[in-house]
Amino acid sequence: xxxxxxxxxxxxxxxxxxxxxxxxxxxxxxxxxxxxxxxxxxxxxxxxxxxxxxxxxxxxxxxxxxxxxxxxxxxxxxxxxxxxxxxxxxxxxxxxxxxxxxxxxxxxxxxxxxxxxxxxxxxxxxxxxxxxxxxxxxxxxxxxxxxxxxxxxxxxxxxxxxxxxxxxxxxxxxxxxxxxxxxxxxxxxxxxxxxxxxxxxxxxxxxxxxxxxxxxxxxxxxxxxxxxxxxxxxxxxxxxxxxxxxxxxxxxxxxxxxxxxxxxxxxx
Amino acid sequence: xxxxxxxxxxxxxxxxxxxxxxxxxxxxxxxxxxxxxxxxxxxxxxxxxxxxxxxxxxxxxxxxxxxxxxxxxxxxxxxxxxxxxxxxxxxxxxxxxxxxxxxxxxxxxxxxxxxxxxxxxxxxxxxxxxxxxxxxxxxxxxxxxxxxxxxxxxxxxxxxxxxxxxxxxxxxxxxxxxxxxxxxxxxxxxxxxxxxxxxxxxxxxxxxxxxxxxxxxxxxxxxxxxxxxxxxxxxxxxxxxxxxxxxxxxxxxxxxxxxxxxxxxxxx
Amino acid sequence: xxxxxxxxxxxxxxxxxxxxxxxxxxxxxxxxxxxxxxxxxxxxxxxxxxxxxxxxxxxxxxxxxxxxxxxxxxxxxxxxxxxxxxxxxxxxxxxxxxxxxxxxxxxxxxxxxxxxxxxxxxxxxxxxxxxxxxxxxxxxxxxxxxxxxxxxxxxxxxxxxxxxxxxxxxxxxxxxxxxxxxxxxxxxxxxxxxxxxxxxxxxxxxxxxxxxxxxxxxxxxxxxxxxxxxxxxxxxxxxxxxxxxxxxxxxxxxxxxxxxxxxxxxxx
Lengths: 268, 268, 268
Prior knowledge:
CATH class of chain A: Alpha Beta
Largest interface: A-B, 32 and 33 residues
Radius of gyration of chain A: 17 Å
Number of domains of chain A: 1
Largest sheet of chain A: 9 strands, mixed
CATH superfamily of chain A: Ribokinase
Helix content of chain A: 40-55%
Number of strands of chain A: 9
Oligomer: homotrimer
CATH architecture of chain A: 3-Layer(aba) Sandwich
CATH topology of chain A: UDP-N-acetylmuramoyl-L-alanine:D-glutamate ligase
Mean pLDDT of chain A: 95
Strand content of chain A: 5-15%
Order of helices and strands of chain A: HEHEHEHEHEHHEEEHHHHE
């Protein structure tokens, strides 16, 4: 993949400032809103059932994140998703904690069925739980091999008819038979809460301006990884990383991409 | 306006640490609490209907922000506002997103009618939506001229019998025929989520200790703008800005005001 | 107390990454999750009644914080606490704002009765309110002497059959007749929202890996105080402090403890 293709999307986000409607968890509302602002998008956080159709209808994309879900919020997610589906507004789903509890797994499956997201982004454990529900899992499950993870992502991508992103040391982006791998990022990012949620929010900005959800997801993961690794290199710990990450996203330049991009993609 | 009049209010906030009761949105709870602590006030965030009368009754002011409103929270806002009105506790209203959805516009209008805030603070689009409800608006509307915005603010100020603050590159503070303009601030502040909400919270600290809502609002906007521009000058991006803003508010000195204050006010 | 005993617990947290289930307030969800990640634990924030038994069942400890309580959340706290009690999972309770409203005081007392926390952590005013409910209090009550505070902590410790931590310039940790005092910390910490809540969350990490709630609480308060004072010394204000605190927690070394630990404990 050429850095230019990522850069064009970033420039378009900065120029168009797409409205990204987030129904997300309490932990990351502030930090994901800030990440969207830093990259140039316009975030809105709203969950009242009374305004879902109107609010989603204004948006360029919808990001649904079940990190601190509860029954009334799931209703809002379904209502927003219905509007999005009717109007062709792309939806990113982050099935946070899927597999940890039955409520999360069932809710995520219901949302996929009802809303037809264009991108599902999670870690390996969450993606596996979406496929192997009913089997015992315990939150983070890192016992499976990279090949098993990729196979699961392919299976989910086909059954849910969407792009599946599996975050990890190397991010997988899978659309049926197409697979891209993004090797950017830094291990310190796992010590900042909600960096995965931020990746999903950022993916929301990219799907709002790029008609290919696959390319949008690859570009989003590359942008996250590059901004994260530059930030981590300048940081003594996760407190600084959180701050530097926003500064880097805000000031990201084409040469940052060309110097650092580590993406394997089918069309690169 | 002389810097000394802003400074006297800041010193009074630091000395008295007024309790500011916030019913606000999830995105900014942490950052507005931190801004209130940094300037010397005592924030409390609470929304349970069971404790509204008691909690508001303890406070020097009440800040109501509809950024992530939902029906149960609106009930709490009305209950808290009722107590505030009965006891003469000044209320600041931030009608976040007014105009974007009918639910927000209607709720904001209902709150103004029931609670009689002393200050309403929003951006031009939100203030216009309060007046021109029913007419089509789409979130941020920057198509109107500064004169139209000022006229709208005057009209709302008269009909709602309160001070109206319109945030922008130059903040307008309007109380009927009196108009003040604050030209402090920095464009990078718009890339940090909730800086407007923070302005409303800070206004809550000033109305708690200054009996004139007009002067309190002018002083609050000047303080926000000066702290924000000093912070922005020291920041590479919105991540640093958020941090530096709190440090600057905490350490703000009289000379920062005297060197930077750019306020046009009727009694200056 | 020897620094080594604190250090052993920190190393164990880093090695085992205990899952700490938090049902906490909106203001501090992000910052307490980040503090838990920085020290090496695995935070999860969840409050849906549908998943409480399962989620708490996965955890090494449960932290309940009533900072922005409401009726549905209290139900979740009781459900999570029931699971914790049945399975012997240690619970830390933070009775935020206890005494400010009847709802908070009653809820905190109900939680103590139903859940039997192993640690209750609050400020002097909150701890007093738990004992002297019905008597007039007004939020923060600093009129009582250190001896009165210690006597209250002993009384509550005996009646609630748990460790009571009273945060202040010198933290008290009381288990019946045993009293430890931690003199670490820095006054600037009081200008960052939720540092008390963070202390409770960090205590959750220590009770998950140390079978003695008393020693866990002493170690947690020492770690908080030392990380806080190092961070404050490097900070111009509360914005920097919040960031530096996370960096310091993340990189804390044994020599930081041996150089700074100021603890009086019965078995030191």
